[in-house]
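#data-curation
PF: Archiving a pair of folding outputs for the training set. Convention for this channel: one message per protein, sequence first, structure tokens after, nothing in between. First:
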Amino acid sequence: LSLSPEGVSAAEDPWERGPVKHLLPLCNHDTILVKASFREPFDEAPVLHLGDRSVAGIRMDGSGRFFRFHCAALTADTEYELAIHDDSGGRLCDAWPLRTMPRPDAAVDHFRLAVYTCAGGLENVPLRGSDLWIPIAQRQRMFERILSFQPHAVVGVGDQVYWDQITGVYKYVKMDIPDLRESIEAQWDRFGRFERNLPMLGSANETVLTRVVDEQLAELYGVRFRSVPTILTQDDHDYFENDEATDEFIAFPPDAFMMRAARATQRLYFPEFLPDANRPAGLGATDAAPDPYRLGEAYGTLRYGKLFEGL
């Protein structure tokens, strides 16, 4: 996982992030969608400046740390300069570039896509003498290696989060592996415990969720993918369970708690799929909540001119 000469580590990145905790963008040929979180909450929504346009953030959480920025009717295959300001006009971070995709009917000669899987996991959870998950610093080195190839887009296939409840936490606590059991119990005390009958957002569950996912997603990604359209998909662990079945418990299809957890994670941390005129309107999880932007939770399209289409 050594970096090429073009690779730049986070420590060497001169970009000033200010209070921004993480940024993940997605775009197609005419729309840019950015999910961002901040270290402290805002009473008034920050504003994304994009060229000569500006759009106010839409608050995604109960406290005012998480915002979505949506800007449509853009020009295809055009590099825009983005910057986030507070409501009084003060710049919160350095500006950064992001290029829209070519038009769907455009002839393009190359496209570079980076794909990886299972980026989630906590730090310092031991299992039989080693870490249960790869250290975050090592995952970030992989990200820097990916960025050194200057991809046009990135797809991170689930699992983005590992904090299984019944199939993980409870099971590990019962297993006769003292170091793992003690570590899981310590993490439980650190993050808190979910109340399965409460809403995920706007209740005590929101604090637990953001403690868990901040470490596995916001701190992992930071701002390094700010100029690369990024798709993150969800798999079993993103519903806070492993896909397994025993006489005592069958994890899938997901129950109401699991659905709330997965939807809240996406709502706060990474972009939904952008509209696609060819996507059937009846697909599941399309506009699960009233949304004038016609975003999709689970099904979408990555299209790069006439050269590449990924569903």
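PF: Second:
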Amino acid sequence: MATHNLRIVGMKWRNMRNFEHLPHQKLGAKKLQFSKEGWSLLQIQNNYGKTSTMHLLRSVFTGVKMPKNKIKGYRYRQGRTDWGGDPEAKSEFSVMLSLDDEDFEITTILDWKNMSQVFHTYREGHGKRPGWNPPEYFRALFEGKMDFAELLILDGEKARTLNRSHGENTIGRAIRQVTGLSSICDLIDENGEEGKITELIKDLEKTVGSGGKKTSTLENNLLACIEHREWAEGERD
């Protein structure tokens, strides 16, 4: 199985919550902002936009737009404009990623006045184009898979919800989404719910019994089938 190397190498905020204009380095820069060690610490002060950033990351990763009634909450709300903020402008968030040997960037723009959201994608050799158009492997892994994205891009609020929840199967649904095993997983029992195999066994038990009775019933039915076949062959002759 082929292995892939995917990581976030930069993010950019513009007119987003309390972020005026925080750009990342340009694509192709030799020195990237995020660590190559597999983890980075992102520290943002309270009420500035940490949770909003996590929501936007999931949206960018999956191509799933934010709920329209939530878009207005992402507008720039700082009173000051001397650092480049514009309270009347659209909000913009970008993520620069590296997949194997390709760098690409996905940008989402939220128009809080019209309650709309659009994506733009920059890829080497293709330039910047409208729409959510990442490399094929990235698309296959993340497109539309919000359950998976919530586990991968996990914040404190989501972790607390998972810890407190009962009867939820977010992890199971996420694995099914990313592996395409939904139809197979439906066969097995999970979280107190019976799968199709158990349902089939119960249906058979109603027909042929269970335990020793099941064996006896199946043998008798088999003998009856053999006798019927012999009778049918005699009638045919």
